């Protein structure tokens, strides 16, 4: 594919790249170990806004992957940064869990259902019709509509679950207001992660398993993009897209020698 540039920093998706259905992808432990030993800066990215970065570090450790909490960046953190940039010290009505509410508290946001500046929709295991109704009425009253990510479904042991993008579509249908999605494939999330590790796009690689989120957002942020085939997108599907990754490999195990 495209000629590989020198890679000084790494961004990696989590699900489908490092872990799959709660289990480590073969070679992921050695990949993370090699990254840590190299001293190169890296971030593990996820659109999941349910958990705090500390929660995710513990979950990854349970899968045998030693990723420091500060090396994890979520759509909840990206959303909190975005709102802090746009309207410091603002207020929000939040549908979400600890990952999102903690991130907003940490940037000084007030969480309220009384005339908030924003309605912020994230992931939760149990979407409440009462909360969704309240969100609709607040948006009708003038609150700005933000969502952590556009993913329509999420996985579970029983099958697919409606996720942030699906619930956002319902709220949009009721209000006529489209949300601003902060997480992937918005390249803003990539740029926020780059800023956190003081990295430059021209010497950073983005590893992902989805052409429609990881690869397109990495490409739009100017990164060297690497598609692994351990998650959603399979090799025969790549040519369906009008853009291509810089490199395609079977798994992160094939990237260890590039570090």
UniProtKB/TrEMBL annotation:
<feature type="binding site">
    <location>
        <position position="209"/>
    </location>
    <ligand>
        <name>Mg(2+)</name>
    </ligand>
</feature>
<feature type="binding site">
    <location>
        <position position="15"/>
    </location>
    <ligand>
        <name>Mg(2+)</name>
    </ligand>
</feature>
<dbReference type="InterPro" id="IPR023214">
    <property type="entry name" value="HAD_sf"/>
</dbReference>
<dbReference type="Pfam" id="PF13242">
    <property type="entry name" value="Hydrolase_like"/>
</dbReference>
<keyword id="KW-0378">Hydrolase</keyword>
<feature type="binding site">
    <location>
        <position position="184"/>
    </location>
    <ligand>
        <name>substrate</name>
    </ligand>
</feature>
<dbReference type="GO" id="GO:0046872">
    <property type="term" value="F:metal ion binding"/>
</dbReference>
<comment type="similarity">
    <text>Belongs to the HAD-like hydrolase superfamily.</text>
</comment>
<dbReference type="GO" id="GO:0016791">
    <property type="term" value="F:phosphatase activity"/>
</dbReference>
<dbReference type="InterPro" id="IPR036412">
    <property type="entry name" value="HAD-like_sf"/>
</dbReference>
<feature type="binding site">
    <location>
        <position position="13"/>
    </location>
    <ligand>
        <name>Mg(2+)</name>
    </ligand>
</feature>
<dbReference type="GO" id="GO:0005737">
    <property type="term" value="C:cytoplasm"/>
</dbReference>
<keyword id="KW-0479">Metal-binding</keyword>
<feature type="active site" description="Proton donor">
    <location>
        <position position="15"/>
    </location>
</feature>
<protein>
    <submittedName>
        <fullName>TIGR01457 family HAD-type hydrolase</fullName>
    </submittedName>
</protein>
<dbReference type="InterPro" id="IPR006357">
    <property type="entry name" value="HAD-SF_hydro_IIA"/>
</dbReference>
<keyword id="KW-0460">Magnesium</keyword>
<dbReference type="Pfam" id="PF13344">
    <property type="entry name" value="Hydrolase_6"/>
</dbReference>
<feature type="active site" description="Nucleophile">
    <location>
        <position position="13"/>
    </location>
</feature>
<keyword id="KW-0119">Carbohydrate metabolism</keyword>
């Amino acid at each position: 594919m495209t000629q590989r540039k020198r890679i000084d920093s790494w961004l990696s998706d989590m699900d489908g790249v490092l872990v799959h259905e709660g289990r480590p992808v073969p070679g992921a432990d050695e990949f993370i170990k090699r990254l840590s030993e190299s001293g190169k800066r890296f971030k593990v990215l996820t659109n999941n806004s349910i958990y705090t970065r500390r929660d995710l570090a513990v979950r990854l450790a349970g899968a045998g992957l030693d990723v420091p909490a500060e090396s994890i960046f979520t759509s909840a953190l990206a959303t909190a940064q975005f709102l802090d940039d746009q309207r410091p010290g603002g207020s929000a009505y939040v549908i979400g869990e600890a990952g999102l509410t903690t991130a907003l508290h940490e940037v000084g946001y007030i969480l309220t259902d009384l005339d908030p500046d924003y309605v912020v929709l994230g992931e939760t295991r149990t979407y409440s019709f009462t909360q969704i109704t309240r969100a609709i009425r607040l948006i009708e009253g003038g609150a700005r509509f933000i969502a952590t990510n556009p993913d329509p479904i999420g996985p579970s042991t029983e099958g697919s679950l409606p996720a942030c993008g699906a619930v956002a579509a319902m709220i949009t249908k009721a209000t006529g207001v489209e949300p601003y999605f902060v997480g992937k494939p918005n390249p803003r999330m990539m740029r926020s992660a780059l800023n956190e590790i003081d990295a430059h796009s021209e010497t950073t690689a983005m590893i992902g398993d989805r052409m429609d989120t990881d690869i397109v957002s990495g490409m739009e942020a100017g990164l060297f993009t690497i598609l692994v085939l351990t998650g959603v997108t399979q090799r025969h599907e790549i040519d369906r897209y009008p853009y291509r990754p810089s490199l395609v490999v079977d798994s992160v195990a094939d990237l260890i020698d590039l570090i």
